Amino acid sequence: MGRKRTLEPPNAPAQSFGRDGVIAVAIAPDWVRTAMAEEFIAKKGKAAAVADIPVGEMAAAEEVAELVAFALKPSQASLSGATLDFNGASYLR
Description:
InterPro entries: NAD(P)-bd_dom_sf (IPR036291), SDR_fam (IPR002347). By secondary structure, the protein is an alpha/beta fold.
């Protein structure tokens, strides 16, 4: 269904360059309602697209953007080294 990807954890750059002010946070969304997702829905149907998403919906691009904006706030420097999974409870880390 979705594209598989390999995610390099952000902890290595966070540890290596944190003292230099570098903040490294990975945001790992699963299905996001994009043009590519819409093509899949058109071919296979929405039920197939959300079958493995317990909350029953794909994330909206705006939801991902809000999380990015939050992670970029200077007050969130303690997030450095974290991976923020964004997946509608389809998997747990």
